[in-house]
Write the structure tokens for this entry.
Amino acid sequence: MLNRFVDKTGRKPSGWLGKRMYSNPRGHYKSFRLTLDKLQLKPDDIFLEIGCGGGVLLNMALETVKHAKAIDHSSDMVQIAIEKNQEAVSEGRVEIVQGNAESLPWGDNSFTCATAANVFFFIEKPMVVLKELYRVLKPGGRLVITSTEDSILPKLLFALWSYSMHLYKNSEMESMLMHARFQTVEVKNVERFIQLSYAEK
């Protein structure tokens, strides 16, 4: 029962509750803004988001970038992300697909920047996903991951979900990014409970 709740409300959102939560994920807006501030998007950037949820951060990015792609493993999230970004989809500026971040459906050196906002703690094979992100980024491409550091207070606050979440110390995130061959790696805590990781290919 708890597993189903975690899936529907976080790990793989679905149904009316998941759609309602992620069509306007108010609790995520702060990390979305931090992500965009760190990426410093430019119009000619080609933006990738993994775990795009309801497409709100993607929509914010499309205010600056001309072209973007996004992936989520929930068909319901893909549906509402397409609805949220319908104009850009119809113009051919954005592609939103259902799939797995462990095997991204795009070629090497396809993107100038990428992000995973509030999703990395649900990824079962983090090194596989980081290596995939490295693969699809162009040389010099920027990556921003917003998550939650492994500490006691977030675990207490997110008690219903925490047993299913994979949280990492800042030093662990830094080590994983470097092991995936990223450079200019910077991992720090910002605001309350937000772990922001930045790296470049």
